[in-house]
Task: structure prediction
Amino acid sequence: MSESRNAILGKLRAGRDAHPLTPPESDFAVLRNKRWEGAERLERIKRMMEAVHTEFLETTEAGWPADVQAFLKAQGTRNLLFGPATEAGARLSSEWTEGGPELVPYADRVETFKERLFDGIDAGITTTLGAIADTGSLIVWPTPEEPRLMSLVPHMHLALLRADALYDTFWQAMTENRWADGMPTNALLISGPSKTADIEQTLAYGVHGPKRLVVVIIR
Amino acid sequence: MGESSINFAKASSAALQDQQLRGNFRRAMDGLMSKRAVQFADTAEWNGVRTLGASVRLRALSKLPELLEKLEANCTKNGIQVHWASTTDEANAIVLSIMQRVNAKLVVKGKSMVSEEMHLNAFLEKHGIESLESDLGEYIVQLDEAMPSHIIMPAIHMNTKQIAHLFKQKIKEAEYTEDVAQLTDLARRVLRKKFATADVGISGVNMAVAETGTLCLVENEGNGRMSTTVPPVHIAVMGLEKVVEKLEDVPPVISLLTRSATAQPITTYVNMISSPRKAGEKDGPDEIHLVILDNGRSGIYADEELRNTLRCIRCGACMNHCPVYTKVGGHAYQAPYPGPIGSILMPQVEGLETRGELPHACTMCNACVEICPVKIPIVEIMGRLRSEAVHPGDAVKGAGSHASKAETMVWKGWSMTYASPLAYQFATALLAKLGNAAPASLPLLKEWTNVRSKPRFANRTLHALAREKGIPDV
Result:
């Protein structure tokens, strides 16, 4: 197939060199200047995400595992998929009390429990790297301890968001944190539960991914 | 992958008779136009981000061969296998060989315009592989054995009732319902089983980042994430123009794309994939393949003016705002890419012989140019292609194929008449005397008089009237 590679690149080079193109400078000021003041950011994130059916649960650093458990119990959730090797996972399992939903660890390769994942899990909980005020989006970077499907397959996704980890724009989050120096296997922005408007422009939630997205704000 | 020559005029006539279809499109497009206007209500912001977006696309095109090499090097470093295809046949063969190596029987697909261009589903089916569309709109269209009619909303030509009947007819466990939530839930149940058992996932690419070897995919449904995460093999197909230079180029383009396409500040998911499953990771595909397709694009790139077509970010805003598309719908174009962008892209990719009629599906009103988030001069290119269609030997494949002897003679006669004062005076005098006697059914006149009154000639020419007033001819 390298024949095609060389032919394509050769043609492109010849075409470009015969008629070079001088592009204008890229001025990122329009993104650099987009700013919101402290408290405004979180308010905006909530407003934008609520507009696409995201739910919010306010809690504290000390109390979030208990609050999550109480919330899920009230919803009648049978079980919660979590990453036992993360700091958040360790807190969940040490503070989880009897009588709540079952805690299910995502501890092995997906191949060993795909069937249960697709048919028997009600909710999954992940951490986030923060959220973006411009678009109302969570930044989620799956890791070996917190795999990709945790935020996708369960019917409800709970996302832990620290109230001080907020950015103005997607551009600001990636440039300030130098994402380009090392991208993970899969980086994600998530801005609500799964949705579609493919049937006569009528919005419907939960078409393939989570039907509910619950952002747990930790202050 | 040339199809037989299409007949836009005939297909659009038929579409215009279909009141249901016209209603479905009218409602959808009106809604999209007003919602999009709200997203870009801040004119200064729109101008800033649009100029930035256009510069990102132009910068990528100015370094296209180098960026593709860099993308390949970084993807390879990350463990993504890169393949190059000059033609859609070659791209299909690459996809098939990967499938056969892993003995794939079932493929789940996210929405991808390039795979439509490749007619990939039909090709795989011929080789005994079930290729299932998983975007709800694409799934509906596939069940209906039809083509998508819009690049963002593939099933926009159907209403709920039609979809309800289709599901009842084609899905075993379906009960008839016109409740959209229930219809959506039914599709969820059917497709979840397929995601869990598919051997391969196929996706398109909204943008590939040369700097980091990252494939970006935007979507609302999660089917794209499912297709690229659950099956053990992920194959991404992209047109070679989809590369951008830097990671920081992604946010402005995504912002323009989602706001222009569906008037959302952002889609539910922005998925950035940079490698297959690494040691210790518990899910994600073990293999990722990226197929980079040319299919005529390098030819388009060689021409300074036509090259602007490759800026396109596939947002569909040009369709939503096109007075022709919004009346006749996408199927009349009989092409994977309909509307204004399709009318300039399809003839360049597949040739003017079969697609030369499409640049005429335009009123030159400029609505698409005003709306295009990356400032593609669509109407100028449209005019250029009309001219290419009748002038042999120029840049585009099939140039000159629409030249007709009668038309050439008429234009020659026209130019000779206008170049000679004597011939002009004679011709205008003749038309003043005899022009009104010409029947409306004359071959060249008929197309005009079909829907309009026949023009009436004055019985004296302007020159004659001027002379009477004592104004001499120059």
